[in-house]
Amino acid sequence: MIITIDGPTASGKSTIARTLATQLNFYYVATGMLYRALAYILTTTYHYSRDDLHHPKLADVHACLQSDRLHYRYDPIKGSILIFDGIDITPHLKTAVIDEYSSIISAHEKVREEMVQLQRTLSNHFDVIVEGRDCGSVVFPNADIKFFVTASLQVRAERWRFDQAAKGNYFSAEQAFQIVKERDFRDETRSASPLIIPDGAVVVDNSYMSKEQTLAYMLDIIKEKQSFDTSGKARHSG
User: Fold this and answer.
1) 168 phi and psi, to 5 degrees?
2) CATH code of 58's domain
């Protein structure tokens, strides 16, 4: 079974996806972490500037994403783990700077084409929950279940600010609002795989829902789908 969860910045989709993967014993693919990893590698190993990310060399992108160099692994306890050239780069991928850089690199059409193939490969042998911004619209348009998780801009900006503060990065409410608004604009207006509500997706607006309420609602939908699944067998568990 393939379940996709798309949505804008700070909608809570990553936390929801991880929790659902644990409860269902599914493999979790966090596509945003792959873009973050690429942005980090290009700006460190390949010494790209912020401006360079707008026009990446496809040979560099291809080299970064080779299976013998970049490894994605999901651990139910530790979460998503990214290894590049034998080094765990995961701790470096959740900064505000890498958040911005990944947004820039992800707007490039050829980059997204490379990533789509990688994401499909990662999901090839498991029952999966795939979370990101184009999972149900582009990567897995025929997914068994599609969700689009969202919340108001004001709510998401506060969530983003709170999350950054927990990492030692402090922003005013006004700064957070502007940053999230700009990220939304980039995601929704890019020419390659813009953020949209995928066809057939269940929209979950959790502006006024707790995490527990959101999870319960989505889990009910998944279990209802599973009960009508005539195959009766998962491909593999994660």
Assistant:
1) 90, 10
2) 3.40.50.300
